[in-house]
Structure formats: structure tokens, C-alpha cells
Amino acid sequence: MTKKPRVKLVGTDGNIFAVVGRCKQALQDAGQSHEAKELVQRVFKATSYDEALGICQEYIEAE
Questions:
Q1: In which band, very low, low, confident or very high, does the pLDDT at 51 lie, cut at 50, 70 and 90?
Q2: What is the mean pLDDT of the chain?
Q3: Residue 6: beta bridge partners?
Q4: Spatial CB neighbours of 27, under 8 Å, sequence gap ≥ 6
Q5: pTM for the full predicted model
Q6: Cα distances (angstroms) measured from residue 12 to each of 3, 21, 33
Q7: Per-residue DSSP letter, 10
Q8: DSSP letter (8 states) at residue 61
Q9: In this structure, what are the phi and psi dihedrals at residue 5, rounded to the nearest 5 degrees?
Q10: N or C: which end of the chain has fewer CB within 10 A?
Q11: Closest C-alpha among 62, 61, 63, 56 to residue 20
């Protein structure tokens, strides 16, 4: 399994767009562009904030 990038989520104030943006950027910076695209697609199909946040945490290590 590929190493998960660490992402600081403090300060996003519950804004899922900010969370996804940080996670996507961290994945791209780590050379995981495919995972970044997959993350965005899955999050935007989520039916709740908690589900979307859980999906993000599958791809990154939250700080």
C-alpha cells in the first residue's frame, strides 16, 4: 500500500470543500494523482459530511 500523506485539517471549519482541496493537493504532491481524482469522485457522491470526511481519511493521515 502507498504511504498516506499527512494533512492538517485544523482550520477548515467543517468546510468539506476546504478539506477535499487540502487532501487532493497533498495526494498530488505525493505523486498520487490517480488517488486524488478517485478521492474527489467518491467524496462528491457521499451523502453526508461524516461520510465524506471518512472517505478522506482513507487516503490521508489527518493531523
A1: very high
A2: 93
A3: 61
A4: 5, 33, 35, 36, 39, 59, 60
A5: 0.89
A6: 23, 10, 22
A7: T
A8: E
A9: -70, 150
A10: N
A11: 56
